[in-house]
Write a structure and sequence with these properties.
The chain contains six helices and ten strands, in the order βββαββαβαααβαβββ. With 228 residues, it is of the alpha/beta class. The longest helix has 17 residues, at 179-195.
């Protein structure tokens, strides 16, 4: 079994720009170890969200390989990607993207029920553990409109980690929060990465939380360069 949660090999992506072509990602490679928390920084429009979308198989690449838990996605048909995403990838978005008609507990149970290998008792236990671990047990019966921004992001974190994915992909998870709450969210992601033996890539503009990550990469002019 590989020591890496995810490997990106020679990923390239370009878009048509009028009569020309705009190269967004230029032969990018990246290896992320289990329990590693990685930040990707760079100017707006540099392709950070595109890189994250390709990593999570939400966007197509022009060339290259994505390997998650020793599975090369290039060898899989697109109809298999949905199952692989569900079992191996967790997403945390800038604006949480919780379902407005479900309570916090129901959001987590919806994810837990996608794992057919666990009993209902085991699923309920995991849901309860996450609600308590992330300090949102008092939000159990609340709908998103009844929660603060920080509470909604905590639910989003719990949802992302619910089925023990190999990799977490977080797109500006602190952008809509103030400094203190944003740092708290980043600390929670880091804590869960270490505790659950997973890994995370976080795209961010928030330099106040970069001391929490293990590695920092800068994406600019299509190239990904390690900063530390």
């Amino acid at each position: 079994m590989s020591e890496y949660a995810m490997e990106l090999k020679n990923i390239s992506k370009s878009y048509k720009d009028g009569s020309g072509t705009n190269l967004i990602l230029d032969d990018i490679s990246l290896k992320i170890r289990k329990k590693e928390f990685v930040a990707v920084v760079g100017p707006s429009g540099s392709g950070k969200s595109t890189l994250l979308g390709i990593s999570g198989m939400l966007l197509s690449k022009d060339k290259g390989d994505i390997i998650i838990d020793d599975i090369n996605m290039s060898n899989k048909k697109q109809k298999e990607w949905t199952r692989i995403r569900r079992e191996h990838v967790g997403f945390i978005f800038q604006n949480h993207q919780l379902l407005p008609y479900l309570t916090a507990e129901e959001q987590l149970k919806l994810m837990a029920n996608m794992d057919s290998s666990k009993t209902k008792l085991d699923k309920d236990k995991v849901v309860n553990e996450f609600l308590k671990e992330l300090g949102i047990d008092d939000c159990r019966k609340k709908y998103p409109k009844q929660m603060s921004g920080g509470q909604k992001q905590r639910v989003a974190i719990a949802r992302a980690f619910m089925n023990q994915p190999d990799i977490i992909l977080a797109d500006e998870p602190t952008a809509s929060l103030d400094g203190a709450r944003g740092r708290q969210i980043a600390e929670m992601i880091k804590e869960q990465v270490k505790k659950k033996n997973t890994a995370a890539i976080m795209v961010t503009h928030d330099e106040r939380i970069l001391d929490l990550v293990d590695s920092i990469y800068r994406l600019e002019n299509g190239k990904l360069i390690k900063k530390n």
